[in-house]
Design a protein that fits this description.
Oligomer: single chain
Order of helices and strands: HHHHHHHHHHHHH
Number of strands: 0
Structural class: mainly alpha
Number of helices: 13
Length: about 300
């Protein structure tokens, strides 16, 4: 087709649909993770701590996906180092984030975890050689400013980091590493990268339980079933959505879009826990949406 020729309507519609799928996948994942704190805390109240929750949930998700369709190891040869790093990073991303949400303040956990877009952009620039576009230089600080406005509380000191803070900050860095490696290994199938990530979560959670000498929890059957359902359905679908979205767009763009979780988290806390949104939180949510809109309209999907 000659350069500049208009695409037929049916091809433009198909192209728009294909372009929107990674975006919608990430928005769905961000929405899920914005509300998942609630069932996680219910499970903790029932007697399952964070490491047990992750072991059971991701063990269930791994088993379901593996039984539905085992993807094999085609294309993994020669990539074992990257895959091992991806497994460890993905494992700590999930375990560390959940421990931070359960052991400390949700607000502090979110702000420290979502420093991850900064790490993602920098790692993508230095290791994947993605250019820092002018739009990225605008959307990244804009999104981060929105996140800070939404969850900053004057009465909470940021001077000293507790254990939950360290969980959140290190999980955010691990999330950035996971995103960059996922993008770098885009020749691998989504199922392959998903199973590697989940295997990492299982190993990290199991190691923490062994290290802490955790006894087998004596909880109600309903708690176990809820944990299995959360993993075998919720985590399964959401992880597939994240890996698909990140694999089909530059990490600079996906990092900004995933900030949408902050807005969803604030709204879910207001709806489920009765927390009222302050004017600063509404302003921060608006900045996050604006940053996402600019990223969507100014970044090239296949950059």
């Amino acid at each position: 087709m000659p350069q500049g020729a208009a695409l037929p309507v049916r091809f433009r519609k198909r192209e728009n649909y294909t372009t929107m799928k990674p975006l919608l996948s990430l928005l769905f994942a961000a929405s899920f993770w914005g509300v998942v704190w609630y069932p996680l805390r219910l499970l903790q109240d029932a007697g399952l701590n964070g490491a047990w929750q992750m072991l059971v949930a991701y063990g269930s998700a791994f088993s379901v996906l593996a039984m539905l369709r085992w993807p094999g190891i085609a294309g993994m040869q020669g990539q074992w180092g990257k895959l091992a790093l991806m497994a460890v990073a993905a494992g700590w991303t999930n375990v560390g984030f959940v421990l931070a949400m359960l052991d400390g303040s949700v607000a502090r956990a979110l702000i420290l975890f979502y420093i991850s877009p900064l790490w993602t952009v920098l790692l993508g620039h230095f290791f994947l050689h993605e250019r820092l576009r002018p739009a990225t230089l605008l959307t990244l600080p804009l999104g981060m400013m929105g996140a800070i406005l939404m969850i900053w509380q004057p009465q909470v000191s940021m001077a000293s980091l507790n254990r939950a803070d360290l969980y959140a900050a290190s999980a955010g860095l691990a999330f950035a590493v996971t995103n960059v490696i996922t993008r770098d290994l885009q020749h691998l199938g989504t199922r392959q990268k998903t199973l590697v990530s989940w295997f990492g979560v299982i190993c990290v959670a199991g190691f923490m339980l062994l290290l802490g000498g955790e006894p087998f929890p004596q909880v109600a059957l309903s708690a176990w079933l809820g944990n299995i359902l959360l993993g075998g359905v919720g985590f399964l679908v959401t992880t597939l959505a994240v890996i698909y979205g990140i694999s089909h767009m530059p990490v600079q763009r996906s990092a900004v879009i995933l900030l949408f979780e902050i807005l969803v988290g604030a709204l879910s806390a207001w709806w489920l826990a009765g927390e009222n949104l302050r004017m600063l939180e509404w302003l921060g949510g608006g900045l996050i949406i604006l940053a996402g809109f600019i990223a969507i309209t100014h970044e090239d999907i296949h950059d």
